[in-house]
Amino acid sequence: METVFTIMPSPLGELLLARHEEGVTFVEFHPTRKIPEVGWRRDEVALADVVSQLSAYFAGERREFDLPLAPQGTPFQLRVWAALETLPYGETISYGELARQLGDGKAVRAVGAANGRNPIAIIIPCHRVIGSDGSLIGYGGGLERKEALLLLERHGRSPLIQK
């Protein structure tokens, strides 16, 4: 299965996007953790729909994504990521509450670890998970970006996002 990628400029910095025939496999602020892997082929056209939907999201014009997703992870990670996809736009949830929704209130650390390994940032909205006291904690793209995304979703704008 061939993986294609592109690098998308965004108001919060470059995003590395990747997909294969089953769907989007990767969206991450670049180059925080991953660089294009050996064998990936650059193809802007194949990722035009992802770029378009993310651009509309950053402009405050899109609240939901309509893209096939194909994240790769453990069964537990996939459960956490599927639960993240159900979080409403503009709302947040604590790691503890997410663990309880998944059926094990004691799995807070495991939920946090799975959240931190989310390979499809923004589209699988791991930025909507916060500390039990309402604090912004744990975001692979950086807390400034997490704050910017939450402000965008709550108010339709963010001083950290230039349009």
Summarize the structure in short.
With 163 residues, the chain is of the alpha/beta class.
| First-last Cα distance | 36 Å
Mean pLDDT: 90
N-to-C SSE series? Answer: EEEEHHEHHEH
Question: Which CATH architecture of the largest domain?
Answer: Orthogonal Bundle
Topology:
Blueprint: E1 4-8, E2 15-20, E3 23-29, E4 41-42, H1 48-58, H2 75-85, E5 93-94, H3 95-101, H4 108-116, E6 129-130, H5 143-155
Parallel strand pairs: 1-4, 5-6
Antiparallel strand pairs: 1-2, 2-3
Helix pairs in contact: 3-4
Could you describe the 3D structure shown?
With 163 residues, the chain is an alpha/beta fold. The chain folds into 2 domains: 55 residues, 2-Layer Sandwich (Double Stranded RNA Binding Domain); 81 residues, Winged helix-like DNA-binding domain superfamily/Winged helix DNA-binding domain (Arc Repressor Mutant, subunit A, Orthogonal Bundle). It is 31% helix and 15% strand. The protein contains 5 helices and 6 strands. The protein has a 4-stranded mixed sheet with strand order 3-2-1-4, with no helix packed on it. Strand 2 and strand 3 form a beta hairpin. The radius of gyration is 15 Å and the shape is globular.
Keywords:
four-stranded mixed β-sheet, 5 helices, single chain, 31% helix, 163 residues, alpha/beta, globular, Double Stranded RNA Binding Domain, Arc Repressor Mutant, subunit A
